[in-house]
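Justification of computing resources. Each target in the renewal requires a structure prediction run like the one illustrated here; the chain below, 378 residues long, is used simply to show the kind of job we budget for.
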Amino acid sequence: SEFGYFLLSGSLILKAADGGVKVTEAATDSSRNQIAQLVPRRYQVISSTPVTYLKVPNPLLNAFHGAGSEEMESSIILEEDGVGGSDEETQTASEFAFENEISYQLYQELQNDTLVLPSLPDIAIRVGEALKDETKNVHHIAEIAQTDPAITAKLVKAANSAMYGGSGKVDSCSGAVIRLGTQVTHQLVMTFAMKELFQTSSKLLNRRMKRLWEHSARVAAVSHVLAKKLGKFDPEHALLAGLVHDIGVLAIINYATQFPEAQENRQILDSTIKSLRGQVGSMILTKWGFPEDLPAVAADAENWTRSPASKRADYTDIVIIAQLHSFIGTDDMATAPAIDAVPSFKRLGLSQLTPKMSLKLLDEAKEEIAEARALLTA
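Resulting structure tokens:
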């Protein structure tokens, strides 16, 4: 079978080839496992009562192995055998079926490498190529940046900001690149160019995409300031990590434009995002040729309990703390853990301070966070 089956209600009799009989009842420990999961199947399964079961495609089951039941909800089909459901139950089954359809189709395209992923903005590619070319200098890089007036304006603004401020005012792109340096310029160009990706052709999903951009910009700004305060991370790399941590969500939202049901039903889209955001995001950043720590950020940015074997803090830790900080004062705060309760807090060395002192560190950086965010959203 291409599917795994889980018993929700009712009773089953499993008859083995050697004559052995096993009874499985819903809501018992045994019903938490797959029904006859050995392949090839070694049991004849008979329903002794009307039953309800979950039918999960094996590729999704393998992908979500070890995940909690909430994550699995996006990939299930609810089927009833011999039981007449109410209209509400029928609607729920229909929604589950569609969640399965969109998740399974997207997953299959991921596996077959046929999923159309967003492309890295052209200007970011060109600046990156110029940096690799030893014949290109600061002025060549400035010329490329100047082909995009919006990015030019942001580079000049960044060079004159307190974040990178030097003596005297810069009023040209070349001057900005000289002050910032070529590596910082490249990272900022990539960061600024990302904004153009946060768009969708769907009017229904446009507000959601806008909220995603605002969230990403907030997380990027906090990541930048946190990296700067800690002193052992590259602030610009942290800025970029914060901005792209939800790039998988962006791709899934755009993918959902093919499905009117997903545009109109928030629960369906939420479930699909929850299941596949990390894998899609990691694939996009790998395709773009980003350093391997950034695909890792996309894969684990929502994993609050993440505790890898290495004790060394990384950019995923930065983004996790930045996200939790960005939730302060929002509805997300109700379901998120306390900042000082997650492993990333300790890994970053913030536990060496008292929770109050570490939160004060970020609170005192409000102006810096606001400046970084304004630079992104301008």
